[in-house]
Specification:
The chain has about 80 residues and is α+β, with helices and mostly antiparallel strands.
């Protein structure tokens, strides 16, 4: 996951994976917000990602404002 701020001041998260679970992106964005607001520290989010588990004390970010901009499939995924 990479974050950038565009010229208009919007934060953009670039998230890539070979699959996504229900609300996974909202949970990841919410976890970053928890760290940014000081609710949790960077070690907490690193452990969450390393354990590959959804953490119940993370904020699930609202869908409003989140936009899917691009989906990419490689040949192996398409042709199975």
């Amino acid at each position: 996951m990479n974050w950038i701020r565009d010229d208009a001041g919007y934060l953009i998260a670039d998230i890539a994976a070979n699959a996504f679970c229900y609300s996974m992106v909202r949970n990841l964005v919410g976890a970053v917000v928890c760290v940014a607001e000081g609710r949790n520290n960077l070690d907490w989010i690193s452990a969450m990602l390393a354990n590959k588990e959804r953490v119940p004390d993370s904020l699930v970010f609202v869908a409003r404002g989140l936009t899917l901009r691009h989906v990419e499939y490689n040949a192996e995924m398409v042709n199975g």
